[in-house]
Amino acid sequence: MNMNIFSRRCYNSSIALSLLCLVALPVGFASGQTQVEPETALRMLNAQQQQFAKGIVKVADNVFTAVGFHGANTTMIVGTDGVIIVDTLFGPTSAGKAADAFREYSDQPVKAIIYSHSHGDHIGGGSAFAGDDHPDIYATESFGSAEGVNKAVDPVKAKRNVRQFGRNLSASEITNRGVAPAGTEDGDRGKGFLPPTITVPGEGLKTTIAGVEIEFHVAPGETDDAMFIWLPKQKVLLAGDNFYSSFPNLYAIRGTAYRDVLSWSESVGKMAELEPHVVVPGHTMPIQGQEAATTALKDYSEAIRSVYDQTVRGINAGKGPDQLAHEVKLPGNLSDKPYLIEFYGSVPHAVRAIYVGLLGWYDGNPTTLNPFEPKVKAKKMAELAGGTSALVAKMQDALAKEDFQWALELSDHVKWLDDADAELARKVKITALRGLAAKEYNAPNRNYYLSYANELESGELSELWF
């Protein structure tokens, strides 16, 4: 088996919680780039757990970040006569606990709330912070555009969201969400949302709030309505979801509109130009120290741009998304950076998203212009194998050899055949999905495989398994 091997290195959380040395880590085999031996996958995900260990991190004399109170981070900036809150978590329950923890450092009134972007895990708990203080609430002009404007597919996106984040997985199945803990309190989603009262213009804004000099920089990336916050005196940068300790989610498998990858890279590059002493991500631990923080941002920007550039070169060379998804890699100087490991985003998924975002679904190959419908293709696959029984035997053989991706693909053909055992195909797919999940250190992939397997097993999915 041909494997790429990470050299011996140490995974270090940015505030020195602990060190985990990963030895001879194999990547890039099987069907994806994020599959390793099950023990290694679990060890990596457990190590990543340190990135959202619950607590308050002091990042400057007057700046405190609450990590692990929900999936995202929230930050309190203490001024002369009040405090500023940047992002408000998912709902008032989690936000209330973070607000109580902040009050150990200041009991001043909340003068302002700032939304870095409009994802629900950053905006749903404002009321718990505001109380009776009636703060100003800042957001960009395009606030609310995080998920695109098409609501027609919200029903299926909701199902896929549950799978990606493993919301229905048991305690024995769930690990984490890549950049967030599992088992968060989600029942009060959005119930504490407070609408913006002050709009940050496209050119940004420099102002003083509660005696604190603060800059708002509009910076599209994971969302079109994103901005980062810069505290020039403290040299602290609050990045929102344009940076966190994982390869970025340039495409989310729950289903998202195209995320402008080039703009994302440029936005992170602008952050790096400020040479912050601390970068506070939207998720995961702050990175402290000018060299560490600035280098991380430069590397992040370079990684995104490299994936984009490689994909564009491949497109213009006539290559399709399937081929490019297996060819594009992070540059060697970035492949072992702890904040670029594919715990959340995935290079192959990013490549496919870039392709579709730039060219649409058609790969230029006339063979794929009008392909057979699935049932017809399944019959032809059976004929090629020597009949339905032979195709079923090939499916079972792939599973026995732990060739899980091939077993999945064959089960999807077998399920369409009228003379095949559909229940056997379903069982093969369930086993193969769990086999793939065990090897995944990419949390969304792992969660999706397990969630789908459970839905198949319970009978929740239709006979067509969608």
TrEMBL record:
One of its GO terms (biological process) is dodecyl sulfate metabolic process. Residues 1-32 form the signal peptide. InterPro entries: Alkyl/aryl-sulf_dimr_sf (IPR038536), Alkyl_sulf_dimr (IPR029228), Bact_Alkyl/Aryl-Sulfatase (IPR052195), Bds1/SdsA1_MBL-fold (IPR044097), Metallo-B-lactamas (IPR001279), RibonucZ/Hydroxyglut_hydro (IPR036866). Keywords: Signal. SMART domains: Lactamase_B (SM00849). SUPFAM superfamilies: Metallo-hydrolase/oxidoreductase. Residues 71-283 form the Metallo-beta-lactamase domain. The keyword Signal applies. It holds the Pfam family Alkyl_sulf_dimr. The keyword Cytoplasm does not apply. GO terms for molecular function: linear primary-alkylsulfatase activity; protein dimerization activity. This is Metallo-beta-lactamase superfamily protein. It comes from Rubripirellula amarantea.
